[in-house]
Design goal:
Layout (H helix, E strand, L loop, with lengths): L1 H40 L5 H10 L1 H29 L4 H31 L11 H28 L1 H11 L4 H23 L11 H17 L13
Helix pairs in contact: 1-3, 1-8, 2-3, 2-5, 3-4, 4-5, 4-6, 5-7, 6-7, 7-8
């Protein structure tokens, strides 16, 4: 009996670390594509500078797109692995977690097309010669704005999946409860950011609003990857 329990623990711990690895990949690629690349290339109040930045640093822009594609592939795998790990805690919540996460994927991939279209506009195709430089610059900015609008929409699901995920972490008994609380609060952080972005576009949401989500996700990522799960804790299937 002890041997079986020990083997179960090894399997669960391996699953936790795989989830942590996928999570880390999402965090790193997400930071690169959503924060680092835009900070280097995009100047929102100057279309000309932004256009020239992308032209002169086209490879960085392309790597940013690739990083986004990798991020969303990992975002497909993460909830599936977490489902395997957390299903014994509460199956219905685990299913809801996966559904909310997976729904965001097609939206995210379609949204990346805006960035791919930017590459077409900065190219040397013959048909582009009919546009003036100002027109091309304006179209590039419009596509970048469309991409940002798409991120605002997909953040709804980036937030929603955190609530069942956080609940499962909190109830698991083999992951820190504080991380579960932060993840659940993080759900509302995203939703506040979305509502604020839609209702008050000229008002910048304070950075502390997203702190619970950031700390909860990065903390859970590192815990899964480094610590795995607590040994000796058992869970029981529940559908209530």
């Amino acid at each position: 009996m002890d041997l079986i329990k020990n083997e179960d623990y090894k399997t669960q711990n391996k699953t936790a670390r795989i989830a942590g690895l996928f999570y880390l990949s999402i965090v790193l690629s997400g930071i690169f594509t959503l924060m680092y690349v835009p900070s280097k290339l995009i100047v929102w109040d100057d279309a000309s500078i932004t256009f020239n930045n992308i032209v002169t640093s086209e490879m960085l822009f392309r790597i940013g797109i690739l990083s986004g594609l990798i991020c969303y592939v990992c975002y497909i795998m993460l909830p599936i692995v977490l489902y395997k790990l957390l299903k014994p805690v509460h199956e219905n919540s685990a299913v809801l977690m996966v559904v909310f996460a997976i729904i965001s994927i097609p939206i995210s991939y379609l949204n990346i097309q805006n960035k791919v279209d930017v590459l077409s506009l900065i190219g040397n195709a013959e048909y582009l010669k009919m546009y003036t430089a100002e027109q091309l610059e304006a179209q590039v900015m419009l596509l970048l704005e469309s991409y940002d609008n798409g991120i605002l929409i997909v953040e709804v699901f980036w937030g929603l999946w955190l609530f069942p995920f956080g609940y499962l972490v909190f109830k698991s008994g083999f992951l820190p409860k504080v991380l579960g609380i932060l993840l659940m609060v993080g759900c509302f952080s995203y939703l506040i950011a979305v509502c604020g972005g839609l209702l008050f576009p000229n008002y910048e949401i304070p950075s502390f609003v997203m702190l619970p989500a950031s700390i909860g996700e990065i903390g859970t990522c590192l815990w899964l990857l480094i610590m795995g799960i607590k040994k000796g804790k058992s869970t029981h299937m529940s559908n209530n």
